[in-house]
């Protein structure tokens, strides 16, 4: 991107980690008397949390500096996301956790499940039993019940009321927010792309926390600025830069070293297929379902996380993203000891190389800077294989 280009969100937080904007937003909400609940996962049913009048806070999970504290309790050979999350709690350094009055958790991977037991000793924690065979007919009903139970937990804990009408209202709000965010993502599909991975990451991060009402002006203004960038011929990278789709585990904070390396190696990231990117905004909630909880249940069961088996939706979603964003390379980021994403990587590789005839690279990493040069060598090598445009 050329120097002097106006940031997409010009609120004083441009260029800062997205957590700063989110924290400032949450503090304002707290001052207005709103209660905050902490979340860790793309399966947290935001519509029920919001229908209860609460504000979700994405809890810190992406810093190398808290891993050592996490390892005083958790095994060292555990995923860095879990060790970092727990390390933040142990050292009392996650400001989002500090202002959260409860934590909403889901039974995704074993490490997270057991960490939630430790958190439950410190703060009210509501664990939802996530069905992991999403294609079985019981899954919809069971997850729907879990989502309803969450409403009950929130009512009891916060003295609020979760009504069907409230859930329907929030379903519509989410659909609207997702529609606008996807219009932003459409710009990344252009060649060349006028939007950076950092801008997408910032907006998707803020979108988890802010209400649709508060996001609307931000997104509308960003869309206008993107249209202007296109009209002015402003784009990111070079016109001939290899386009990269990054898939896999959530990538935030210190793990964004991988994004930086890709760009330093001359690639342009056009698609962020993870829960810290575009994944949370895919799909659509049925607005006129007889039972709104079933609508919420259906939508979340469609989230293609590797904790699901089979996770064939991941491949279908990848088809859509490859067709939309026209990447030249797919890079799968797997966090150390994340067995489900690691094993699934074989299928993704076979699918991308076989069906889409595209180079594929799996990067296994953690949050430490120790492997930066090794990753750089591998990224440079894979980008070299892209035919010159
Ligand atoms: S919906 S991706 S946010 S579970 S990386 S902690 S899976 S061992 S983060 Fe995730 Fe929800 Fe799925 Fe998204 Fe475990 Fe793997 Fe670590 Fe992970």
Notable traits:
389 residues, Rossmann fold, single chain, binds Double cubane cluster, alpha/beta, four-stranded parallel β-sheet
Describe the protein:
Helix content is 50%, strand content 11%. It is globular, with a radius of gyration of 20 Å. Helix 1 runs parallel beside helix 9, helix 8 packs antiparallel against helix 9 and helix 11 crosses helix 15. The strands form 2 sheets. Strands 2-1-3-4 form a 4-stranded parallel β-sheet, sandwiched between helices. Strands 6-5-7-8 form a 4-stranded parallel β-sheet, sandwiched between helices. Helix 14 (339-355) links the parallel strand 7 (329-335) and strand 8. It is α/β, with parallel strands linked by helices and 389 residues long. The longest helix is centred in the middle third of the chain and has 25 residues, at 164-188. The model has no long low-confidence stretch (mean pLDDT 97). It starts with 17 loop residues before the first helix and ends in a 5-residue tail after the last helix. The chain has a domain at 18-162: Rossmann fold, CATH 3.40.50. It has 15 helices and 8 strands. The protein binds Double cubane cluster (BJ8). The site of Double cubane cluster has 20 residues, from helix 4, helix 6 and helix 14. Double cubane cluster (BJ8) is lined by residues 41-43, 79, 81-82, 108-109, 111-112, 249-250, 275, 303, 305, 307, 335, 338, 340-341.
